[in-house]
Input
Amino acid sequence: MKLVERAGLALLHRFDPETAHGLSLSALRLGLAPLPGPVTSPRLKTRLAGLDLVNPIGLAAGYDKNAVAIAALSRAGFGFVEVGAATPVAQPGNPRPRLFRLSEDRAAINRFGFNNDGAPAIAARMAARVPGAVPVGLNLGANKTSTDRAADFAKVLALCGPHADFATVNVSSPNTEKLRDLQGPAALAALLSGVMEVRATLPRPIPIFLKIAPDLTPDDLGALAEVALASGISGIIATNTTLSRDGLTSPHKTESGGLSGAPLFEKSTRILAQLSVLTKGTLPLIGVGGISSAEDAYAKLRAGASAVQIYTAMVFHGLSLIADIARGLDRLLARDGFATAAEATGTDRSAWL
Output
């Protein structure tokens, strides 16, 4: 099975990255990719902000932007899946090329710019899905041409929220001009207030997460944590892509956009550990950035995460990586005497401070 997957990856890597991305989604929709189903154990079962997860390994937003492969992704071994980002109105995003594969660095740079089919189309697809054991959430975005980007997040939640198991406020993408300005305390507090007002009107009060950038200063991070704690949101996702290019060797290292993958691991994990201290363990954290092994996922948990998300590593290792990480994490938890993943959360955060 791994030989077939490696051959498939080699074939995909002959195409430009965005074309390969689309082909991989098509393969999933057509049933051409082997899917292991839920990977779980008593140690891996996790409760995250009221969500029951079969394991704490999630799919990060950005892979299935338009919610076209939810059924297949829910059988790929993940404990939860996040689709999107969705904006109120469909938009094409930035001009191509806008996705770059940095094979030498096991990384990617993207400057997509929230390209998506728009909230109405995505809401319809989410409404048509058959609910299963794997929670499916939506990343909320804002239109590039919007005159009130803060209101866009509430608009998308109002339309799509009834069909989602959770939602993520994404103010940390570097690919929409000035979007990260919404991470400032006053702007963020107002934005989250509007989102939480809409949440209160939904048929069920789904968890709301906030996705943050890895490039915040300690003071900015502290201010953001205060706003998050006061807002009533359910947790923080740390982190989105970085603007840093430290240590890269690929010819594509000078491309503009957000960097994801292995080079982001240390930066994002340090932010995660700092957040764990700032929030005093009262707010669930989801660790994202550079995870490509069970050891990486375990490190994120021990730095303060309750769950993790993966995306870029699949470009280089394939979809079977998810089941491998889940099973490997189970072994690491057993080795160190943890009865559950939750018991490991934050047990080694001092190493990252």
Notes: The chain has a mean pLDDT of 96. The longest strand covers residues 80-86. Residues 2-352 form a domain with the TIM Barrel fold (CATH 3.20.20.70).
